[in-house]
Design brief:
With about 350 residues, the chain is α/β, with parallel strands linked by helices. It has 2 domains: about 110 residues, Immunoglobulin-like (Sandwich); about 190 residues, TIM Barrel (Alpha-Beta Barrel), CATH 3.20.20. The site of zinc ion (ZN) has 5 residues, from loops.
């Protein structure tokens, strides 16, 4: 065999080896720089070349990796990956010149990073691990997801803005103002609009805002039949869960209609309001703005509708102004959490004013 033949043979063996073994001995370093996610380093020392005795499994990185701000940290989740036994989660501070470091190994497909510091944007990625005998196989890393934590000071005033009947073409404009002001709100959405505004619904969750259930098609639920009540609520829950992975915790009954049938079958706390802007009636941004400014106080739940141009215009003024006046704009669930209110399904809540001692 001449030298060229030898070289060709060696090259062929090495290619064959890397094709067969790449998942087994190739590890994308999760502490690599952000820009090199998913890159694969192949180590093929010639002296270790040998025929494999079993077909290695193809370990994939987790799909649909999501990071969302929550009141107690940053919630991560991803789809279960075939052949995965465990997952490794890596984190770094976004934009900082530092390596990713391993923060958690878990068997579950969800993890809340409670060590995340307030007001910091983190970058996360996750990968799959399978231990077979003495060998540990690791997948490349998932996509990087960034998420910012937020901070609520329980000793300071807070207000829950709520928007009903959407999403609509105006919802994103309201989200822009919330995002720019590091504020959050609760959106009580209609189930039959979810699929037309998928991106908006996902963005609501991503910004740490809350998605509540406002029935499927705005039916009067109060004393409707039990089967109608249940189907209106569960159809909406399913649409939201299928898209976001989360089931809404809260119900806002359309028209504020509450009856015994609904109380018994809501299965969720029912959220009304303490300030009604009547934005649907005036369709006037200044009227809505003035109403909020002259009524809003600590612990209020404010009713608006993200269906109108005028409400979006009002929100652009209301949100920064309330912040300027020292209010923290929080979701309804956050307001309840910081006010120490324990929900009961079928109960009605219209405000969460501070308790006077
Ligand atoms: Zn409504």
């Amino acid at each position: 065999m001449n030298i060229i033949q030898k070289k060709i043979r060696k090259l062929f063996v090495s290619i064959l080896f890397s094709m067969v073994f790449c998942t087994e001995i190739t590890v994308a370093p999760c502490n690599a720089a952000e820009e090199t996610v998913g890159d694969v380093i192949i180590i093929t020392p010639e002296e270790e070349l040998h025929e494999p005795d079993e077909k290695p499994i193809q370990l994939k990185q987790p799909d649909d990796f999501q990071a969302e701000a929550a009141k107690n940290g940053i919630k991560l989740r991803w789809k279960e990956t075939q052949d995965a036994q465990q997952y490794e989660i890596y984190r770094k501070i976004s934009g900082k010149d530092e390596s990713f470091s391993l923060i958690k190994t878990t068997k579950k497909c969800t993890y809340t990073d409670k060590t995340a510091k307030y007001g910091v944007t983190y970058a996360y990625k996750v990968r799959t691990i399978a231990v077979l005998g003495e060998k540990t196989k690791k997948s490349p890393c998932s996509q990087i997801k960034r998420c910012r934590t937020y901070f609520v000071d329980p000793s300071k005033p807070m207000i829950a803005l709520t928007f009903d009947d959407g999403p609509s073409i105006y919802t994103d404009g309201i989200l822009d103002v919330l995002e720019a002001n590091q504020s959050r709100a609760t959106f009580f959405v209609l189930g039959n609009r979810v699929n037309s505004y998928k991106k908006t619904v996902l963005r609501i969750g991503k910004l740490g805002c809350e998605i509540g259930n406002h029935s499927y098609d705005h039916a009067i639920l109060g004393n409707n039949s039990v089967s109608k009540i249940r189907s209106e609520i569960s159809k909406t829950d399913k649409k939201i869960k299928a898209l976001t992975g989360n089931t809404p915790v809260l119900l806002r009954p359309p028209y504020g209609s509450i009856g015994n049938n609904l109380k018994k079958n809501a299965g969720k706390p029912m959220i009304l309001w303490s300030v009604d802007t009547l934005d649907w009636k005036s369709r006037n941004a200044s009227t809505v703005y003035q109403h909020v400014m002259s009524h809003a106080k600590d612990g209020d739940i404010i009713l608006m509708h993200d269906l109108y141009f005028s409400t979006r215009a009002a929100a652009k003024r209301i949100i920064p102004e309330l912040k300027k006046r020292g209010y923290q704009l929080v979701t309804v669930s956050e307001l309840a959490y910081y006010r120490g209110i324990e929900w009961k399904a079928g109960e009605r809540y219209a405000q969460m004013w501070p308790q006077k001692h």
